[in-house]
UniProtKB/TrEMBL annotation:
Molecular-function GO term, any one: O-acyltransferase activity
TM helices/strands, residue ranges: 48-70
Chief location bin: membrane
Coiled coil: none
Protein species of origin: Anisodus acutangulus
Name of the protein described by the UniProt record: phospholipid:diacylglycerol acyltransferase
Family as reported in the entry's similarity comment: Belongs to the AB hydrolase superfamily. Lipase family.
Amino acid sequence: MSILRRRKGTETKKTSDSEPEYEEFKEKSNGLGSRRLRRRRRRRRGSCVDGCCWFIGCICSIWWFLLFLYNAMPASFPQYVTEAITGPLPDPPGVKLAKEGLRAKHPVVFVPGIVTGGLELWEGHQCAEGLFRKRLWGGTFGELYKRPLCWVEHMSLDNETGLDPSGIRIRPVSGLVAADYFAPGYFVWAVLIANLARIGYEEKNMYMAAYDWRISFQNTEVRDQTLSRIKSNIELMVASSGGKKVVIIPHSMGVLYFLHFMKWVEAPAPMGGGGGSDWCAKHLKAVMNIGGPFLGVPKAVSGLFSAEAKDIAAARSMAPSFLDSEMFNFQTLQHVMRMTRTWDSTMSMIPKGGETIWGGLDWSPEEGYECNEKKPKNNSTQAAESDRTRNSVNATSVKYGRIISFGKHVADFHSSEIERIDFRDALKGKSHANSTCRDVWTEYHDMGIGGVKAVADYKVYTTGSVLDLLHFVAPKLMKRGSAHFSYGIADDLDDKKYEHYKYWSNPLETKLPNAPGMEIFSMYGVGIPTERAYVYKLSPAGDCYIPFQIDSSAEGGNENPCLKGGVFHVDGDETVPILSAGYMCVKGWRGKTRFNPSGIRTFVREYNHAPPANLLQGRGTQSGAHVDIMGNFALIEDVIRVAAGAAGEDLGGDQVYSGIFKWSERIKLKL
């Protein structure tokens, strides 16, 4: 027993003696364990990053492999597969017309629209080191992904002058490459240029009138002398071709830009080009406007109001944290708004003519339009007329004149049922400090809660009141814009005030040139739902949010199929409603009117949209979409025939599939 006690005592003593050592060992073990745990966590974290990198690497590898196969395959392979599926493809227009004996005759000038022309860096800040004469707009947009904040800084203009910020010079790319492709594989003018080359055109008788599409039209002359360059090049082309007049082909906003040019070139210096009242008659054969927003586009309003259009609104509703909040410390939509609100050219496309053209609270020219209307195939005019007659019986009543409505129910009410509170005298006030938004300042930060609420309480805006709305929410933008653009209807075009350049791009406030031998075409796509009016709501509360957004949950269903995703749609080319593209050539300029005193002949050429039959057809050869129409074979054939000497009557005169004539008759405008 004594031995046992001694042993127990010994064990107890040993245990008590070893307690400090045990505790030390335990601490070391815990430290080792925690280090092991940290290593495991790092491995897990690393494996997650590695997995993401492997996934991205696999996607890139597959993409480059497919790209290699595409470039390695014979050029005829896609055509062979397409013909095997759909049958023999028609000859491109250039090949077809060359076989008919057509040859290059009149020089051709292209006038690109907004965003489709390339812009390159000539001077920049330190963050743009190494980018001299590299494209910041167009091409691969590589710098947007590498250094987005630097890219936004350089693409923005001065918020006071609308010109270059200090230390930054971005200029338009010159030559046909300026706008042949917007990005690799995405053509703009390339298909038309290639087809013109088939009948003998080359760079000496084709000219791309590239300009900086961000700045106001008159400022392109002030800063870059672009209008003078266009004038000189047209004069040179006429002289070098033996006196043959030029065919002008503007697209999108380029249509408004060339309207401005025609007034500028006739006006005396220093405001104008000093060419005299007969310059256009001597130098221009035809102006073939493609997708022209003559009277503006509703999409410009939503873009300026909330930096949105239909697609952005859908993305904003699905991923609000990415577009609205401070995710990644980069408030995407706020940066976009701050940048685009320095681009004065966007204000050229605000709807013109007010309620006289676009409708009021309870009427619009497009009343009775049926959104489920089926467009005919193969451009059949007879089938189109039959469809319109059949669908007009069940037409849905949409109040398109309400370009902005706060709430779906408000868009449907009669105007007498809507209680409105005028926003114009509402008090503004900063709602927070700029620092909370990491210096992403927009003019909404100066409105305050009271100003935001006042805008929503007004409930409904027409094209008449929307100008006051934009002056209220974006005073700096509209102050600059008011110096360069106007949106009204002239009472007396002989009034001296209309000699100012701010009126030159508005066809309702200026006269066409004295050129009775010239022809004007309006060529545009139809058969695609196009944005016409919007249902808005207040954004969720947040310091850095843009306070208004399109209510993408607003749907019309079977009762009102024109309303989808908070947007009321009408017929058009997906960007420009046919009312804007067609009215001036259908009625405003048709015959001798006060807007067309010399009686320049006008023609409307509509192209019914037909999407590509399969992916191998790319963007298709019968598309009526705003940009894709530049590859439409029927349109290209019309352009080539006129460039080769044909007149509008030789093309068959008007080609119409929409209700543009009927809608134009509803507009009561003094002509």
